[in-house]
Amino acid sequence: MNKRHLLLLIVATAIVATLPRSASAASCNPSFVVQHGRTFTVLPTGVDDTPNLQCAFDSAAAAGSSAVRLEKGTYHIRQIVVNNFKGSYTGAGAEQSVLTNLPNLYVTPFNMYYQPPSAANPWPSLVSFVDGDFLVSDIGMKITGAVPTTGWTIYGLPTLYDLALGFTVLGTTSNAVFSRVDIEGEVAPNPVCNYNLYNGIGFEGLIGQESQPPISGSFVVQNSTFQHLGSAVPVYNVVDASVLLSHNNAQDVFDAMDLQGLLNTMYEFSFNTVEGSSYGGYLYDATSAEGTTELCNLFGDPGQQQRLQRSVRGLPRRHVYGHNHLPGSREQLPECDRFGDIPWSGHKPLPRGGQ
After folding, report:
1. Mind giving me the DSSP string for 131-165?
2. Where does the pLDDT of residue 275 fall: very low under 50, low under 70, confident under 90, or very high at 90 and above?
3. Is the C or the N end of the chain the one with fewer CB within 10 Å?
């Protein structure tokens, strides 16, 4: 090698060495995290899959718009936190790619929501997305064990030992779609809702000690199933957003939906089936305030479909409930003949998905 070629090699090596480094699949276990371009495929280990899945998400988030894929199998995990992820998180099918909790998950004992979820501040949520623009599809989640977490408390409640959320979407701006996702808890004696999982998928402005900034963006949950848990899809502290919950199935739940604190937001709950729930839906503080949306229930009346579609397309600041099937539920959403305010008396909202 002549001196000129040697000099070029040294310069090229120096340039590469000075490029900014980010998390990549190279730092993950190559036997279980495989990268092809911007697709990160995670394989189950049969033991603790948390480091591999967290590494794949960190790598994907650093790479920009990316995909994280799960193969067939069961993934045993502790809490996963995903920050500003843009891309897709998909499995081989809700019955084929299943997330499940490792036993005795450590949770920050007191008021963990004062700070965002992290490895140093684990929340009672199995997978937390903070901000981002993403799709989650074809994945199952099963929460097992009568006491899945160490003790934790919020709002001065007695010590709790259950998971509060399966998936949660947090932060200030997020566009999230969940499709063909199945979430299942177990019956467990506790002071909240008699399940070891309080909420399935949440879209919530929930970070902060006193003044919690609301979350905005868009949130879709469709073609998904919820069993043996508190609230299937809670929505809380939302502003300037659109929410669509459609074609889902909820069985043996406290309620299929609940909402509180929506401002300038379109909310649609339509074409869902709810069986064996305590309440079909649950609204807190539902009387309208300035800037909030109006409430109306249109379920079970095909003649209202035209009005439903018109309201969704042309009036983006309404709540719409349409064409839901709620057999075996103790209470259903109230009927109304026109759009207008529906006063709703209910239980206090703490700690979400409970009594």
Report:
1. EEEEEEEEEEEE---SS-B--BBSTTPPPB-SEEE
2. confident
3. N
The structure tokens listed for 135 are 């799709």
In a domain, 7, yes or no: no
Q: Answer whether residue 341 is part of any domain.
A: no
Q: Which pLDDT belongs to residue 207?
A: 92
173-219 pLDDT, tens per residue? 999 999 999 999 999 988 888 999 999 999 999 998 878 899 999 99
pLDDT band at 326 (very low <50, low <70, confident <90, very high): low
* Alpha-carbon distances, residue 283 vs 87, 132, 172, 197, 229 (angstroms): 32, 27, 22, 20, 18
Can you tell me whether residue 206 is helix, strand or coil?
coil
Asked whether 267 and 290 are in contact (CB, 8 A), the reply is no
Residue 143 in contact with residue 188, Cβ under 8 Å?
Answer: no
**Which residue is it, tokens 């209202």?**
304
Q: How far is CA 172 from CA 54, 129, 275, in A?
A: 22, 11, 33
CA distances from 50 to 99, 128, 163, 284 (A): 10, 13, 17, 36
Q: Which of 234, 218, 103, 212 is nearest to 163 (CA)?
A: 103
pTM of the model: 0.79
Range of the domain at 300: 32-322
Number of domains in the chain: 1
Number of residues in the chain: 355
